[in-house]
Specification:
FAD/NAD(P)-binding domain, 29% helix, alpha/beta, single chain, binds flavin-adenine dinucleotide
């Protein structure tokens, strides 16, 4: 077996792990199907040295940097599952390239956001419809922001987004709100629109207004929307027997990115709810170092045994 580490997912987390391992001369294969979580965003923020840059450009530069390391190779493919073998190696099954085997596996395959079935929602996603205030709210500071959310999480999102703008409109989209929260929101004089949202009217992904069921429109500059997200591939989790963390059912890892299965690591959005490119990169780099350390220990033990 030639490959030492297989990395599933070649974005910010996976490439950071690969950079570390490539610089340590390890034989690494990155398998990536190329659909990053923020692929639709025109601008990304909070990534030091690249604030405001197109995230696809950052990913392109990252890939180019990693490509310099000759022991690292790339496969444009989809991993369908990963299985642990009896000799403690791992078999990684792919759609186009059959089965690959390695001593260590790094899961850096991110999460998938569910799009709300509202016309215009997907077109504006990542630009004027956003889910993370730290990434996109600054650009809409003191502008009118719609909050498209209902249920118990609504009040905490309002608390947060008030840091950027006091001009808010809540769209419950037919959902519910508890009375105590409604009283607090009303005290703040934030309008609550109960009807379902019929459309997000926009021009090239730039929100113009929200159309509700009765045809009435509400002008907004941006929309904060919190929709469900889930791991990109749950078969891997089931087949490896990986433990998940609460409340988001992400891969449970320790501070070094180790999962409950020795030899399997996870980094980035699939292992933390702090969805930031910088965090994904840092966790990827951490996992790169720790996976390398495990390989060093194992290789050294074998060396000593054989001398
Ligand atoms: C709309 C939006 C805007 C955002 N804006 C910002 C921002 O401004 N600043 C910021 O710091 N963060 C931003 N984020 C968060 C950021 O996108 C994530 O934190 C970051 O992409 C996580 O990196 P990652 O490497 O963990 O996963 P991803 O970047 O999602 O990459 C995962 C990779 O794994 C691949 N993959 C998945 N499953 C498989 C499989 N089975 N086989 C092979 N490959 C697979 C995917 O195709 C993808 O290439 C934003 C997120 C969203 C949704």
């Amino acid at each position: 077996m030639d490959t030492q580490v297989i990395i599933v997912g070649g974005s910010y987390a996976g490439l950071s792990a690969a950079l570390m391992l490539g610089r340590a001369l390890k034989k690494v294969v990155i398998i990536d199907k190329g659909v990053r979580r923020n692929i639709q965003a025109h601008e990304s923020h909070s990534y030091l040295t690249r604030d405001g840059e197109n995230p696809n450009e950052i990913a392109r530069i990252a890939r180019e940097e990693v490509r310099k390391y000759k022991t690292v190779s790339f496969l444009d493919d989809l991993v369908t599952t990963v299985k642990q073998n009896e000799n403690k190696t791992f078999s990684v099954l792919t759609e186009k390239n059959g089965t690959l085997t390695a001593y260590k596996v790094v899961l850096a395959y991110g999460v998938k956001d569910e799009m709300l079935p509202i016309p215009g929602y997907t077109d504006c996603w990542g630009n004027t419809v956003f889910t993370c205030p730290y990434c996109h709210a600054y650009e809409f500071a003191q502008k009118t922001i719609g909050v498209l959310l209902s249920g118990d999480m609504l009040l905490s999102m309002i608390k947060l987004i008030l840091q950027w703008s006091t001009s808010l409109v809540v769209f419950l989209n037919g959902g519910t709100i508890n009375q105590e929260h409604e009283n607090i929101i009303s005290k703040l004089k934030i309008p609550i629109v109960r009807e379902s949202v019929k459309e997000i009217a926009h021009q090239n992904g730039k929100v113009k207004h929200v159309v509700i069921g009765n045809g009435k429109t509400h002008d907004v500059d941006a929309i904060l929307a919190v929709a469900p997200f889930h791991l990109n591939n749950s078969q891997i989790v089931t087949d490896l027997g990986l433990a998940l963390s609460e409340p988001f059912k992400l891969i449970n890892v320790d501070a070094f990115g180790k999962t409950n299965i020795k030899g399997v690591f996870a980094a980035g959005d699939c292992a933390t709810f702090v969805a930031q490119m910088s965090v994904a990169s840092a966790l990827g780099a951490t996992v790169g170092v720790i996976a390398h350390k495990e390989l060093v220990e194992e290789e050294f033990a074998e060396l000593i045994q054989n001398v």
